[in-house]
User: Which sequence fits this backbone?
């Protein structure tokens, strides 16, 4: 039996996770589990894990690490009391040799004892804070995906992982730009402060209405385009590295954790019991 | 020729690093390289690096990771333009099989192609911010080492690394406690907000005047003991893991980086050129 988005919007975290785990809900997670941290996902063989972790440490704005599993253990015990990464994300992309091989609602069959799970913070957290401050975000109000661009900023490489930084764009009234930058800087686990604002040409972006990913968003009169480091950056780096196996969330279909959005550190109290 | 502390206090970063690299300066770094991030150090064989990095990610308050080297590469290119970790720390402790084997001003002879360097943020950064706000710190004013205690807080384990959290204590006037907590929370790369304040018994500390490390510090009238996660925590976890080889800085003798103390991310701009 499938469960609808509107009903889950008011569900408890436990009901929400049960609906996703059973496969009853397989759609996007924007607006669900409000108040809790959501995460991008990258699952890799252990042979690549140290280099990928170094890539995240060296590029903390596009790749804010919020959780790393033990090798071969699908339970993300630092992010929640009962999160099984094989079933608790609505939809997964499975890549083999750098190419998308399948899309699935359950990766139990793909799981291996040498896999390591990386959870990365996402932009929902700072967007909520910006909207609470009374700044409207066009893509949210119009139910579109935020526009994303390949920038001319080079990431700091680690092992096989490298590439240009992908950025997301949000248009903000000129007199709120400094305030929005300051608000987002307080969320280092959700990409932090913008990397740039103003003329898109400064990032090597020729046409602001032709994003490389997501939907185009208009610039209203008196609005300034602000650009944040984006979680698509590590996905592009992973694809370019052509790993034999890599599993990610399907874009927009995130892991919902037990960690409060305003937590200082992304570790639940029960994590200490898992010795 | 040795160089004195007082002269180096006003030296440029380049002069300071040259004096340390040549062995002319082998003493503590408190008050040197003002305005730049200083770091605790742990150098381990690659076989333990992924687990240690997971330990840091799971315990970000005692173990705030600010830099990780490539395996076998002694140049810390994300933390500075020209930092050679074999020579650029005033003094090192070399541990073999979990026991202190030697203290040295240069580890060029100990370097191996399988070593990975971890640099961790230290408390100097938030202490500077607290003092700028006009709150005096007794151990700084009296040229002592901050008192440190083994607490009853369990860290989140990863592989062979586990143990109790070590905390450092600073006495703060009751009416400044909330402000000091807020100031330090803004420095997640320097241990962040305190983990506790008030009656030391709550952390399992029997006698506040008998620290496990450092010097005792008095509690003045109207002062509250505040406790922060401490960088000795990973050193204790590493010692307990009895690694065949581990090299740390000698306590107080830190790595001085090129990263500004108030930088949003601990990565210098030239890091991108090191592909």
Assistant:
């Amino acid at each position: 039996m499938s469960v609808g988005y509107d009903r889950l919007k008011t569900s408890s975290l436990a009901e929400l996770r049960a609906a996703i785990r059973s496969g009853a809900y397989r759609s996007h997670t924007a607006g669900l589990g409000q108040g809790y941290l959501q995460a991008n996902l990258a699952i890799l063989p252990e042979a690549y894990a140290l280099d990928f972790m170094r890539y995240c440490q060296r590029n903390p704005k596009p790749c804010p690490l919020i959780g790393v599993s033990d090798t071969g253990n699908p339970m993300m015990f630092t992010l929640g009391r009962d999160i099984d990464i094989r079933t608790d994300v609505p939809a997964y992309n499975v890549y083999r040799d750098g190419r998308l091989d399948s899309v699935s609602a359950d990766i139990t069959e793909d799981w291996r004892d040498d896999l390591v799970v990386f959870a990365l913070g996402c932009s929902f957290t700072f967007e909520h804070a910006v909207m609470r401050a009374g700044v409207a975000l066009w893509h949210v109000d119009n139910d579109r995906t935020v526009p994303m661009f390949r920038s001319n900023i080079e990431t700091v490489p680690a092992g096989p992982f490298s590439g240009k930084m992908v950025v997301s764009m949000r248009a903000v009234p000129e007199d709120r730009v400094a305030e929005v930058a300051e608000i987002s800087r307080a969320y280092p686990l959700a990409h932090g402060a913008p990397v740039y604002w103003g003329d898109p040409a400064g990032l090597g972006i020729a046409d602001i209405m032709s994003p490389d990913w997501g939907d185009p968003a208009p610039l209203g009169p008196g609005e300034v385009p602000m650009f944040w480091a984006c979680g698509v950056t590590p996905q592009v780096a992973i694809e370019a590295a052509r790993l034999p196996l890599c599993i990610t969330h399907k874009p927009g279909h995130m892991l919902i954790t037990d960690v409060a959005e305003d937590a200082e550190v992304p570790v639940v109290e029960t994590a200490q019991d898992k010795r």
Observations:
- DSSP finds seven helices and eleven strands in chain B.
- The interface with chain A takes residues 46, 49-50, 53-54, 57-61, 65, 67-68, 70-71, 78, 116, 154-159, 162, 185, 188, 192-193, 264-265, 267, 271-272, 274-275 of chain B (CB under 8 Å).
